[in-house]
Design brief:
- The structure is a single chain.
- This protein is α+β, with helices and mostly antiparallel strands and about 290 residues long.
- It has two domains: about 90 residues, 3-Layer(aba) Sandwich (Aminopeptidase); about 150 residues, 3-Layer(aba) Sandwich (Aminopeptidase), CATH 3.40.630.
- Helix content is about 25%, strand content about 35%.
- It has eight helices and 14 strands.
- Helix 1 crosses helix 2 and helix 5 packs across helix 6.
- The longest helix is centred in the last third of the chain and has 14 residues.
- The chain is globular.
């Protein structure tokens, strides 16, 4: 849990305390109240890797905020949720201030809604890009032709280290435990292979109203399209979501296969910029807006 989490009630009677697994049903109820798509299983999966804070008033859970520490120098923040009845009382600022304790030496990544962006800017976050959330009933996608020596194949049983290395290079932070967890639970994981060397990968996972495609790591946009088209085809006729980096240039193509844009969160970072090797793999689609 974050160090020195305040537990004394403020003037409004709100108390902050560390989040525990026993809070997950009430946390899920908060997202349901806001019509966010998270299932209880989605909360359980991300909380397994998180440190969280909840806010209570009169014994009722009214807010959550989670952070994930990746290695010694990186973290992400997400699922900062305040019940509608408690919004406008600076509770988000109190939660964020508590989460940021101990992270002064970290690069901290988050994805901000339009309502939250001002708060994060005041806390030292700067805009570094945008996401595009696309979703809908996936249509059968024409397969993308690959150059000679390139192919798609299922991920092997012992391929986690290679995929973890690709993700770390593309995201700019090490997330080995998360990638191992996702690999074990994904409905499908397809690898983009060049001369028997993994150069990218993508996963199809249960999430929210149906399935999500992500993360998607590839050396270029055509490789990303090949991975996404394969998984979208597998899930054709079913609800599918994907959250892409807007700079990827994939938005128009995604709409052509039935995945329409529904939201555009802002990518924000506090601390040193995320470092990705030049010429290395790129992250075309994230896992979720919470964990990045």
């Amino acid at each position: 849990m974050p160090a020195q989490t305040p537990n004394a009630p403020a003037l409004d009677g709100v108390v902050l305390r560390p989040m525990t697994a026993a809070d997950l049903p009430l946390a899920h109820a908060l997202t349901a109240e806001l019509r966010w798509p998270h299932r209880p299983a989605d909360w359980e999966q991300v909380f397994a890797h998180a440190e969280g804070i909840v806010a209570e008033r009169d014994g009722e859970l009214v807010a959550t905020a989670l952070r994930w520490r990746w290695g010694e120098r990186h973290a992400t923040i997400g699922l900062v949720i305040v019940a509608p009845a408690c919004q406008g009382r600076r509770l988000g600022h109190r939660l964020m201030s508590a989460l940021l304790e101990g992270l002064d030496a970290h690069t901290v990544l988050l994805h901000a809604t339009a309502d939250g962006r001002g708060l994060y800017e005041r806390l030292g976050f700067v805009r570094t890009g945008e996401l595009r959330q696309h979703q809908g009933v996936a249509q059968p996608a024409p397969l993308v032709a690959l150059p000679t020596g390139w192919r798609l194949r299922p991920a092997g049983l012992h391929e986690a280290p290679a995929l973890q290395a690709l993700d770390a290079a593309a995201r700019g932070m090490p997330r080995d435990a998360l990638i191992a967890d996702l690999l074990a639970s994904a409905d499908a994981c397809v690898v983009l292979d060049h001369d028997n060397e993994p150069r990218g990968f993508a996963m199809l996972r249960r999430f929210g109203r149906g399935h999500a495609i992500g993360p998607v790591v590839a050396p270029d946009a055509e490789g990303a399209k090949a991975l996404i088209a394969h998984l979208a085809g597998m899930n054709a006729g079913n609800f599918t979501r994907i959250d892409i980096d807007f700079a990827s240039g994939l938005a128009e193509w995604l709409e052509s296969i039935g995945l329409l844009r529904v939201d555009a969160p802002t990518t924000m970072v506090r601390g040193a910029p995320l470092a990705t090797p030049p010429g290395g793999p790129a992250l075309f689609a994230i896992v979720t807006q919470a964990v990045g």
